[in-house]
Amino acid sequence: MLPRASVCAICFEPCRPSNWFAKLVRALGSAGGDGDAWSLGGCQHVCCYKCIRRWVEDVAESHRLDLLVCPVDNCHEKIESAHVKCLGLSHAARMFVDQVDRWRHGTGLSCSKCRYINSVKSSLAKLKCALCKTELCSTCASVWHPLITCEAFHAAQQTQSELTDDDVLFVHLARVKWHYQSCPHCGVFTERRSGCAAMTCSLCLKRWNWGSG
């Protein structure tokens, strides 16, 4: 319950206390007026809607998941999705708050490309990142690797740590699935479709024998 005389903890201007009808409207998700009083249920620190809206938007732009707490110094009361439905946040800020909830509860999958924490449906082996649209493996969170197991993919990552996930997948497929060989002079992958073992590299133009690369 809000105090009768409320002052915003950010701008120090007086806030309009909410009556029972205003609280009901806020609970249904309607945005509050800029000068209305807003408070978390736990700590009871009060901010005006304008300031707390700007605070959440600024935290979302920083991408710091750990900063989504009450803006009062030394208060660590968590701000969650249910607390901000009435703030009229931007789509990006709402996505940020939702992923903070998943991060806190350990229910999300962090994209290996952009680090956005996605919601996970346990029945799906593959999911698409809601932010960057990268297709991900829902088991290991790496880029989708349909032709090899998670264990083989990560083993290849460890031996080729400077490559991206896409590079690792290509190298593994080239060697294991497609049976390409590397030119011993410049390293470019070569495919042998037919003919003898004598090869001429298409990149460095040097000659080598298939089976020695």
From TrEMBL:
The keyword Metal-binding applies. This is RING-type domain-containing protein. SUPFAM superfamilies: RING/U-box. It comes from Aphanomyces invadans. Residues 4-213, 8-74 form the RING-type domain. One of its GO terms (biological process) is protein ubiquitination. One of its GO terms (molecular function) is zinc ion binding. Keywords: Metal-binding, Repeat, Transferase, Ubl conjugation pathway, Zinc, Zinc-finger.
